[in-house]
Amino acid sequence: MFKITTIKAAIPSIGIFPLSNNKTSSSSRFFGASPDVFPPFMLKEMEKIQDPFARKLVSRIEMLPVELSVSKNRIMSSCVTPIVQETANPLVLLHGFDSSCLEWRYTLPLLEQAGFEAWAVDILGWGFNNLEMLPLCNVEAKRDHLFQFWKSYIKRPMLLVGPSLGAAVAIDFAINHPEAVDKLILINASVYSEGTGNLSKLPRSVAFAGVSLLKSLPLRFYATNLAFEALPFDTCLEWTYITRLHCLLPWWEEATVDFMIDGGYNVSSQINQVMKKTLLISGENDRIIDSKLAVRLHCELPNAIIRQISNCGHIPHVEKPEAVASLITNFVPRDKRLALPSILEQQGKVLINH
Fold first, then answer.
1. Which of 94, 151, 169, 252 has the smallest CB count inside 10 Å?
2. Is 164 designated active site?
3. Where is the AB hydrolase-1 domain (predicted)?
4. What is the CATH number for 127?
């Protein structure tokens, strides 16, 4: 009989820690460059966002060229490259549906502190990838993009982390490219929906109208509020701006419609083919994915363990980053730790808790 272990974060979540003004401090090494220095391709709307973790992660986003084999398009692909370099299997952090690498703004620094080589990668069609050439952004293209990225830059079996729909991306990838995956970590996995369903049958003009609504501020605010546990209004609004940022890119609508019309991910019949060791992380109070589906997934995966985070909604790596980092570290223990003092010990008490 399996057991769901409920854990709590070591400190209240989410905490915003006071940061040193010294740009050469060890904390700045983990959290990135100056929060006021953004890459030239970043949207000017980023200046409105105050969250220091989002600002610092944006300062680390790079564009790496990836040539797709399915279309021969060369895509300048957005990602956060690792600070820590090691010979062990790297962590590759995906994101959920219509999101970006900024999901990892709180957890990625903690994983780096734990000694992981961690990459945060934007899935083709979402995030901040440059899609000026308007490549196909269907499931096949997304899979090919991730594989070509891995083949060009990572080149070792990876610990692939997929939250929400990113879990379907990870399962699809692991089945088609098992040589590229060492283990899977799936967070509040959305893997039982049958693609985009009837949305795939919509005329393109109607699909574009629906996609335009998808990026509206009221709908995004509602979705953000639904994804978390009792957010204060100001925090919910700030996090809405962060999740909506990539939707302002000129090719976002075309890429999203392309994914919708193609049919999306449908991996439920393939789950039992995943032989990789898998960690399932579930938020106790997820209002988007029924917790029963996490139990079902645990039963159907041949080699999985399941852990639950208490008082947590759909996106634990934003809401309870310390808990997620702890679970990942326990699942894939490091042989070594960085010889740096704890960021929490160094920077003192948490300023803001939710």
1. 151
2. yes
3. 91-326
4. 3.40.50.1820
* 314 catalytic residue (yes or no): yes
What 3-state DSSP class applies to 230? coil
Q: At what angle do helices 139-149 and 252-262 cross, to 10 degrees?
A: 120
What sign does the dihedral 119-58-214-124 (CA atoms) show?
Answer: negative
Range of the domain at 240: 55-332
282 classed as catalytic: no
Other CB atoms closer than 10 Å to residue 334's CB: what's the count? 14
Q: Is residue 352 part of a domain?
A: no
Q: Among 164, 190, 282, 326, which one carries the catalytic annotation? A: 164
The structural domain count of the chain equals 1
Q: What is the value of pTM for the model shown?
A: 0.84
- In angstroms, the CA 190 to CA 230 distance is 22
Closest CA to 75 of 88, 85, 84, 63: 63
Q: Which of 77, 145, 286, 326 is catalytic?
A: 286
Give the ranges where 98-251 is alpha helix by DSSP (H).
107-113, 139-149, 165-176, 204-214, 217-227, 233-244
